Amino acid sequence: MLERIITALVLVAVVLSCMFATTSQYPMLVLMIIAAGAAGYEWFKLMPHDSAHVSKVKATGFGLLTALLSGLALYFSDLALLLWSASILTWLFSIYWVKSFPEYDGWYNPALKIIGLVLISAAVTAIFVVWKSSPWWLMYLFLLVWGADSGAYFVGRKLGKRKLAPHVSPNKSIEGLAGGIFTVAIVIIAVQSIYLNLTFTQHILFLILSIVTVFSSVLGDLFESMIKRRAGIKDSGRILPGHGGVLDRIDSLLAAAPIFAAGMYVLKLFGVDL
Hints:
Blueprint: H1 2-20, H2 26-46, H3 56-75, H4 77-100, H5 112-133, H6 135-159, E1 163-165, E2 169-173, H7 174-194, H8 200-231, H9 246-269
Antiparallel strand pairs: 1-2
């Protein structure tokens, strides 16, 4: 437990420093590229392979490729928008994959490597773009994801009876999901009431975006759990003592970040300046 707490404190300190300690974009940029590379390395290990031994050289190469694509998307905004669109489309398909598991696992094939490239690159570029808009909007995104996860965990432990996706993640419950939604509802209401000066219609649109982001974070968590279960692996990696791998920490953000960033972009097109 002590190891887990220390790791969490170090992670929080690093992320918050990159977010708030400087107006320079380079610390956040470097952090995103490193995260993309590490996540890509771990993703490759979860993919189907011809042999039981996974080549570390190939996994490293895939991680570097993921970092390169993320770097290009961070530089070329049109590429980032394309990745977000492809990511959101993939997440829509994943609803069926999660719902049908384990009866259907046709998604577990070599094409999953391409999907990983898209999902990871889309997520890190989305996080960076939200941060550039305002570090506080990125903090809001984190609060939505962490609030939903924490609320679901504590409520699920006490009241959880009906399983949300028993074949994918047996510990998650419908009651826990409701607890997570209630928790983030407090955050959403507080932010909209105190900080946003919007019309009634704009408030509704922002509320819809926030709720969709929360549900997508749950989907991201379930999807990574499903891949690990299919691959027969408990944790995506061991780089974070007490926490597993990078993918284990950002699985919810893989889905939530592109959806929130794309939603902010669409809202601006409708005149909602956040």
